[in-house]
Design brief:
The protein is built from nine helices and seven strands. It has 211 residues and is α+β, with helices and mostly antiparallel strands. The protein has a three-stranded antiparallel sheet. The N and C termini lie far apart (87 Å).
């Protein structure tokens, strides 16, 4: 019986373990794996974006929050919109990681499909300006018939964007759902941002917004 070569067996076992480790890492070396890890500092602090001390302080805070929790970003917004004898005021904050998930789970697609026709947008525009009946929407919104309006109006009602103003005893009068007014306005603000070509580079890779 030949004598066992324990050294060779141990070396072979080490090779097997290393191969398993590589498989678990997807065949990447330890150096390659470390390169795939996201930077611990995802958001770089940028100062002097505005002379407004309130906005500057807010920017400093949200940049620090992102740095602390490793998120890709924050959006903090506030606004007021008054029309048709009604007013909406809002203050909100979102983690951008959560916003990006709205694309992944197709929620954004469904919402945009719901309001993405000119007729639906015209109805939303009319109702943002003031509460209206279907007859008023036909007359003032440039529609051809009540049937055409009801077709699009029902889709907006199903999406919880529009409803009858029953709380004010205005049955048959329609309004944009109060807690979604800011969503529609902010969507328009986002579209305006996409059309904005007045950004300027503070240095490569960073854009400073105009206020």
């Amino acid at each position: 019986m030949s004598e066992r070569n324990y050294g060779a067996e141990i070396d072979a076992l080490r090779n097997d373990i290393n191969e398993i480790k590589e498989l678990l890492k997807g065949g990447k070396t330890e150096e390659e794996t470390s390169e795939d890890k996201p930077d611990s500092k995802l958001v770089e602090k940028i100062k002097d974006m505005t002379d407004d001390t309130v906005l500057a302080s807010l920017m400093e805070r949200i940049q620090s929050e992102c740095e602390a929790d490793g998120s890709t970003g924050r959006i903090v917004y506030t606004g007021v919109f008054a029309s048709g004898g009604r007013q909406s005021n809002w203050i909100g904050q979102y983690n951008t990681d959560h916003l990006l998930k709205l694309i992944e789970d197709r929620t954004a697609e469904k919402v945009l499909n719901c309001i993405g026709s000119g007729d639906k947008l015209n109805i939303l525009l009319a109702l943002l300006r003031k509460p209206m009946t279907v007859a008023q929407i036909v007359s003032e919104g440039g529609f051809n018939s009540t049937g055409q309006v009801y077709h699009h109006l029902n889709a907006l009602i199903a999406a919880d964007l529009v409803k009858e103003d029953v709380e004010n005893n205005n049955k048959g009068t329609y309004i944009v759902v109060p807690y979604h007014v800011q969503g529609v306005i902010m969507l328009l603000a986002g579209i305006s941002d996409m059309l904005n070509d007045k950004g300027k580079f503070t240095r490569p890779g960073f854009v400073q917004s105009w206020y």
